[in-house]
Every structure is written in structure tokens, then in C-alpha cells.
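Board notes (copied after class):
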Amino acid sequence: MDGKSLLNAVLDLCDDRNAAAELYHRRRIFECLDHACAIFCRSVRSYKASATLTTVALQQDYTLPADFIDLYMKRGGGYFVRYYDGTDYSWPRVVPWEELFQANLTDEQSVPSRVSIREAESAATAITGTATATAAKGADGLCTLTDSTKAFLTTNRVWPRDKIHNTTDGSSGVVVAVPTATTLRVALFEGGNDDWTNTDAYTIVPSAEKQLSLEAEAETPGHLILVPYIAMPEPVYSDYGAWRLPERSCRGIAAGAAALLQLARHSYTETSWMNGQFSEEIRRAKTEIGRAILDGGGNRNRPGW
């Protein structure tokens, strides 16, 4: 289901569709859909992605994407990631941060044997700048921020799901995609025009909460760390956005979003009914994933496992 179908499904579940369309702002509906889908993905653990981190000399901690939930690659009961030093691959084990902290390694390492995933100890610094091109809102409800002075994929790292504010236009929204080093696709709401004019000022607030820590500072820059992980859904904040999920699951998520949307306005019974539809879809998805693993043998059929 695309974003427009999801939005309509939520409104259809509300008491009066016409009244609901006037009462609830599009931004609020999309936020509830996003929250419900995040709950679904955390529960079912079927939505997967991967991130590639690049080592920096004398750096130990690396920010993970904002959609990171948990690791899923396991061998011998433990999680691992892939490390590439430009010549050879290795597979560092993921261990609790306490183990690395107690090891207290002070010399830089070329190739780590252990890494840890932990909460970021401090919030990332907000990114500020000005648009260097004018871009109107497209038919999909999104617009493109261009800043030729930034490097959104490296130095000024931005992830989908980061919050963005056009401080000149007065609008706020979400980064939906990072297509190039100098452009962002964003959804803006509640501003003057909800788009970008050349020299509009912006602030991006990073939303990433997790980081990967090496067991010691990196000795060599440019090595690649591949992190496969359970992900939150792509942020759907426009009519043409979509998740990589079957339509049945999307309808269950829409029921969960409707329950969140009406939680403060309707009786417990009405909200509980919609939440029940959502919970049933989570149970169904978990059962089907478990059955598929049993039928296919999961990792047991892979050579070397």
C-alpha cells in the first residue's frame, strides 16, 4: 500500500471519515502510521537492512543509522559483523560494552576482533546551513533540499528519519531519503509553502540513538564495517511512499495507527478493537515467519553453519 492508501485506510477506521479528514492533520496521521509500523517491525523482526561504516584513524565510536533496531546475523549463538581491510575479510564478534570497557585497550588496532553496539553517550550535533537552490513541492508531496556546501553522506552525515526544520519558511518535517551528498528528499508540514527557496535556512536534528564501538581506536582509515540489522520502516510521509510489507500487514498497521490517533478522543472499547486488529497481524506475521524458518531449515542448511 502506498502512502495515500494508508492515509485513507486510517481515516476509514475513524468514526466519521469526512470529519476525521478535517480534524487530523496529514502530518499527525503519517506520524501515527510511522509509529505503528515501527512497533510492528520491532515485534516481528522481519524488516532488514545493512549499513557500511568507514573507519577513521584514532576513532573508536561510529554512529549507526537512525532506523537501527537490533542485529540479526548470528553464528554459534553470538552476533557478528563483517570487517574488510581492503584485502581480507574478518568477522568481529559483538560483545557487551562492559567487556570492551574492562579490557581497556589503549593502543590503536588495524583489525578488531570484537565490537559492541551500545546507546550513544551524547546527542549528535545539529547540522545547519542554507539552501543553495529553489525547489517546489512535488506531486508526491516531497521536496528536495540542495546545499552544495555540505557532504550529507560523510562529513555532515544525515540519515532518513532525521528531523528537519526550514527556519525561514517556518515548516518542519522528516528526511525521507539522502539521494546524493548534497541533496535530501524531505517532507515538510505546517509552514508558509513547505518547500525550499534559495537561501532558506535549515536545521537538521539527528535522530540516531545507537553506535558501534570498536575494541580500540582504529589504526587505519578507510576500512569498511558492514552491519546487517533489523530496521525500522522507511519513513512514509507522502502519497507515493511505501513500505516493503504485504498489503495485509499494512492494513493491520493502519488499524494500529488509527488506535494511536484516536487514543485520547474515544472510548477504550473502540480503541481496543482497532489495537486488537493490529496485535493480531503481529501474531500472524510472527507465526508465518517461524513456520518459514522451520520449513526451510533457517541457517542450519547453510554451508558452514
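Comment from the instructor: The two ends are 37 Å apart (CA to CA). The domain at 127-205 is CATH 2.40.30.20 (Elongation Factor Tu (Ef-tu); domain 3).
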